[in-house]
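lol forgot to send this yesterday, sorry. struct tokens for the thing we talked abt
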């Protein structure tokens, strides 16, 4: 047997044995959509298990821990009733249509009890996070925007989700500089942490 043939056979044998002995991990079904938003904490309708430190790298590196969660894909978010707001954005000072479900609708779909004092943490892909109570989220009519001017928002821009409201419709933010009005609106939203009330 030549050295190359031996190495190929050894490699294939190792691969086969490694596959048989490797621990299995829960994986999405072949052809399923990727998860875009994960809701953790006090969720009543979980559809996935605990954080996987090996495969949930971004959440693990950002210190997120959970035993169960509710996840959303683009399709599952699109199935929720959507509204459209038209705020003037801080980035170009122009009005834009932002549409998506109310954040409270997303929380209800995850089985969250909407107690007014319950803190909700909103986390973006860059680690930026803010905490608002359910009452603040409701008062601001915050949405999980998935579309900007009728087009899906992509990663690398403001999406694929943006937790946002129209600051000009909130009395305490009216007249403030736009960047201050949007300070509690993380774009690139990928995680919602539901805390105890």
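and heres what i got for the seq, position by position
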């Amino acid at each position: 047997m030549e050295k190359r043939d031996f190495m190929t056979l050894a490699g294939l044998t190792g691969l086969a044995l490694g596959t048989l002995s490797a621990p299995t991990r829960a994986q999405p079904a072949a052809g399923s959509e990727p998860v875009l938003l994960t809701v953790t904490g006090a969720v009543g309708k979980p559809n996935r298990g605990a954080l996987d430190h090996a495969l949930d790298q971004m959440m693990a590196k950002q210190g997120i821990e959970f035993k169960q969660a509710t996840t959303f894909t683009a399709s599952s978010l699109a199935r929720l009733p959507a509204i459209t707001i038209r705020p003037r954005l801080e980035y170009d000072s122009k009005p834009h249509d932002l549409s998506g479900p109310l954040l409270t609708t997303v929380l209800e779909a995850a089985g969250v009890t909407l107690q007014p004092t319950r803190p909700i943490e909103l986390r973006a892909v860059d680690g930026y996070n803010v905490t608002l109570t359910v009452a603040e989220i409701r008062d601001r009519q915050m949405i999980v925007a998935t579309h900007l001017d009728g087009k899906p928002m992509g990663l690398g821009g403001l999406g694929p989700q943006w937790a946002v409201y129209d600051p000009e419709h909130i009395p305490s933010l009216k007249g403030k500089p736009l960047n201050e009005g949007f300070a509690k609106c993380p774009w690139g939203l990928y995680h919602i942490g539901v805390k105890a009330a």
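Residues 8 and 14 are 10 Å apart (CA to CA). anyway ping me if u want another try
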